[in-house]
Every structure is written in structure tokens, then in C-alpha cells.
Amino acid sequence: MASGTTDQCRSVIDKGAINIFIKLLRSQYLGVIEQAIWALGNIASDSSFNRDAIIRNGGIPSLIHVLETTTCIDLI
Question: What angle do the packed helices 48-56 and 59-69 form, to 10 degrees?
Fold first, then answer.
């Protein structure tokens, strides 16, 4: 989910990507967490509707959890 059109982003969202990426923020693997953050950022930047969907689905508390629990400077 590195880039794409709004229609492509919508298609991924319609298949449940937001919840999947939010769940991946709890992974034990930093690389997975990093990619989930990257994907959520790309989704959020596509539109305010997408940003709000991430917020509605618990994205903010999950991102805060990452910040509170990681010591990896690349994720902060």
C-alpha cells in the first residue's frame, strides 16, 4: 500500500485493510509495525474520510501504544 489511486485505496479499505493494519501495530516484529504505520499513513493521507475511519477504528490508541512501548528510534 505504498501508493495508488483513490479508487485503489478505497478497494483495499473495503476489504478490511484498516483493521488489519491496526492489529499489526501490536506485532512483536518491528518491521511489521513499521510497515503498518507506513500503510496507515498512506491511507490517512488519501482523504479526510480515510483518516477519520482510522480514528474510528482505534488507530490513535494503537499508535500511542507503539510510541509507549518501543525503544526503536526509527519508529518514533
Answer: 70
Model confidence at 1: pLDDT above 80: no
Q: Which residues of 19-40 are buried (b: 16+ CB within 10 A; e: fewer)?
A: eebbebbeeeeeeebbbbbebb
Q: What is the pLDDT of residues 55-73, one digit of tens each?
A: 999 999 999 999 998 877 6
Domain count across the chain? 1
> Distance between CA atoms of 44 and 41, rounded to whole angstroms?
5
Q: What is the pTM of this model?
A: 0.87
For residue 1, being part of any structural domain is answered with no
Q: What is the sign of the dihedral through the CA atoms of 57, 62, 5 and 29?
A: negative
Q: Which domain holds residue 51?
A: 6-75
